[in-house]
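Lab notebook, design round three. We kept the backbone fixed and only want residue identities now. Task for the bench partner: fill in a sequence for the structure below.
Input structure tokens:
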């Protein structure tokens, strides 16, 4: 029964309290993002991003720093500071990496405030501008909280953002080994270009033997090359949001 109720609550968050935004960039846009920030999302993905001269968005949970998640080492503060100094966006993913389905709006707001303070203390007052839902779980009551604090929120529902979009539950595709075989990446990039849309990709760990939630280095390299060949603009989420909704 609990699983059924959670499914219904996810549907409510997806389809109700839509806060519409008109997403119409001058040309197609790609944003790359990494959730949780396993250490390899920086140590392995960072050099690929640098090689291509592109910036990504890293969604941080302060509570995961220096720990393990899915039996993988997570980022250290030094990693976070290095990627921030390299010009990548640091966004919010709650402090505890907790599903919004388990939190009241007040509890969610407290988690966001705690994460904001943790990040600001370590990144010279940096204020996070965008949010990604842990597990992709968007409780209906969470959307107003996200709307108050951030430019936009990103979920995990497959799709390209084009035209009328929910600013607090943007669509995305997963750079995850469990999902990648189901995508026609060339077609997604071509559709993003043709529609002048915004394609957001999210991942986690990066290695030659990724978890089901991670990808290989060549998966990132391939998507960037496809996007460049299609003349997509590659921007972090906050910058892309401003371009797409100007």
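Proposed sequence:
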């Amino acid at each position: 029964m609990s699983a059924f109720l959670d499914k219904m609550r996810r549907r409510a968050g997806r389809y109700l309290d839509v806060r519409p935004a008109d997403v119409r960039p001058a040309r197609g846009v790609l944003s790359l993002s990494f959730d949780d920030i396993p250490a390899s999302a920086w140590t392995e993905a960072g050099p690929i991003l640098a090689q291509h001269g592109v910036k990504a968005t890293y969604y941080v949970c302060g509570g995961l720093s220096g720990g393990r998640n899915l039996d993988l080492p997570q980022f250290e503060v030094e990693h976070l500071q290095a990627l921030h100094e390299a010009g990548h966006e640091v966004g919010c993913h709650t402090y505890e990496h907790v599903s919004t389905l388990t939190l009241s709006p007040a509890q969610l707001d407290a988690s966001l405030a705690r994460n904001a303070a943790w990040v600001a203390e370590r990144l010279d007052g940096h204020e996070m501008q965008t949010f990604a839902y842990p597990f992709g779980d968007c409780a209906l009551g969470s959307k107003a909280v996200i709307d108050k604090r951030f430019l936009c929120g990103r979920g995990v529902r497959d799709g390209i953002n084009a035209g009328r979009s929910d600013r607090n539950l943007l669509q995305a595709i997963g750079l995850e080994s469990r999902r990648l075989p189901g995508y026609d990446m060339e077609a997604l990039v071509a559709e993003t270009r043709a529609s002048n849309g915004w394609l957001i990709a999210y991942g986690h760990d990066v290695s030659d033997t990724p978890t089901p939630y991670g990808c290989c280095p060549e998966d990132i390299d391939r998507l960037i090359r496809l996007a460049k060949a299609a003349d997509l603009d590659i921007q972090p989420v906050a910058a892309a949001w401003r371009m797409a909704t100007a």
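Keep this in mind before ordering anything: The first strand starts at residue 20 and ends at 23.
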